[in-house]
Amino acid sequence: MTEHVEVLIVGAGLSGVGAAHHLRTAFPRKTYAILEARDAIGGTWDLFRYPGVRSDSDMQTLGYRFRPWTSEKAIADGPSILKYVRDTAAEAGIDRHIRFGHKVIRAEWSTEDAQWTVEATHDGEPVRFTAKFLYLCSGYYDYAGGHTPEFPGIENFGGTVVHPQHWPEDLDYTGKKVVVIGSGATAVTLVPAMTDRAGHVTMLQRSPTYILSLPSEDALANRLRSLLGPKLAYPIARWKNVAVSTLIYQLSRRRPGFVKALIRKAAMKQLPPGYAVDTHFKPRYQPWDQRLCLVPDGDLFRSIKRGDASIVTDRIASFTKDGIRLESGDELAADVVVTATGLRLLAFGGIDLVVDGDPVKLPETMAYKGMMLSGVPNFAFTIGYTNASWTLKADLVGEYVVRLLRHLDRHGYDQCVPVNDDPAVTERPLLDFDAGYVLRSIDEFPKAGSRAPWTLGMSYAHDVVKLRHGKIDDGALRFSRRKTGAGRLSA
């Protein structure tokens, strides 16, 4: 049997639950469903179970605009974030609309029918849905596995090798020598979190990352909440944090030398006297060429100062039976090696998109406002900011989709499709970001354009104006009605 809904959402993580909330609030009578490949709500926050997993953004901005974050912790642990997402779904009745264990394989648009036919698998059997509008909230991570380079001699290692994306529940590292390979957000989270049980933890990095300490509690947000209550305090704290993060980002782009000096000075204050700061904490790139790593209350620096953790900056020559031999000739003894070497990206969950029988080749499409695709009707997706909290953008996309659906209803349109017919628009990478996980896969993604509305904005304040209040019928987005029985659309 084929189930029909007006809006079909793919993904029941942070973005999907938020999208459903915006939809049901604006249109209580519209039918919708959420297809979730896994058996639980939460997406990324249900997938990652490694020690210390936490947000890398403050929860005043990673939280939903419509539901205040009320915990005192601004940098929250993974289980708390997962509970927040699940509570949001339960309180709004969104969980009753989720079809768990439904892996979407293919989605085909029919202009004649003005609807999508979506094919999925459930318990090994094919299932089918039709919908007027398809809304992908599946993120861009490949849930099947993370990125692990080919390390020479790894088969000779006598210890345990794990990737953070698939953390074994029964892994016991008590009293053991642990080496964490990597220097990104996952590595700087794991290292201090594992020192409570490990004998010693070493972070092995090829090159340093910019690391900035941030209080785990937002004193102003907590004070405002006690004075004004959660509902009034939340937007103030949210905009304060947006302003601070925007200032840091803009300073990083315009005065990188000044920001580098500030970060270096802050690191020196938290590390032991005489520590080789420039060896282990001086990246080769400029601030915000890659995402800044935040450490709550300086936990990484405190672990190093106590002697529970250390950093080695070198390259791997090969694995040995008892550890890792480095290109410098030194050897790191290890019982457990954690390959925090990055993620793999997967555009739109690997779903095959088809429009009127023609497969959509993603690299040949252009992203409209960073949330729709040229030539693909009645379709939206969520990709969050790389320089700020993901949910800031996810909320704005949800609000825009609501505005778009209202426009369709108000004018009796059946179809909307972005069309790029401006020869002056040139192609740009969708994500202008130098992180390894982006560079490895960006060619498989849609392109961005050199001018609006084909750019993927990275300014929340600018996007608030553009997406929350900007004109829907802007000339690039084309609207049409389906002629009954004619199989054609009229403008």
CA-based shape: globular
CATH class category name of the largest domain: Alpha Beta
Helix content: 25-40%
Number of separate strands:
26
Return residue spans where pLDDT drops below 50 for at least 5 consecutive residues: 486-491
Mean pLDDT, to the nearest integer, reads 93
CATH topology of the largest domain: FAD/NAD(P)-binding domain
- Tally of helical runs: 13
Q: What keywords describe this structure?
A:
491 residues, alpha/beta, FAD/NAD(P)-binding domain, 2 domains, nine-stranded mixed sheet, 24% strand, disordered C terminus, FAD/NAD-bd_sf
Secondary structure blueprint with pairings:
Elements (H helix, E strand, L loop, with lengths): L1 E9 L3 H13 L5 E5 L7 H4 L11 H4 L15 H14 L6 E3 L2 E8 L4 E8 L2 E12 L23 E3 L14 E5 L3 H10 L5 E6 L5 E4 L4 H10 L1 H25 L1 H15 L6 H4 L12 E4 L2 H8 L2 E5 L2 E4 L3 E4 L4 E3 L2 E4 L12 E4 L2 E2 L7 E2 L3 E2 L5 E3 L8 H22 L3 E4 L8 E3 L6 H4 L7 E3 L10 H9 L8 E6 L6 E2 L1
Parallel strand pairs: 1-2, 1-6, 2-3, 4-17, 6-21, 7-16, 8-9, 8-16, 9-12, 10-11
Antiparallel strand pairs: 4-5, 5-6, 13-14, 14-15, 17-18, 19-20, 22-25, 23-24, 25-26
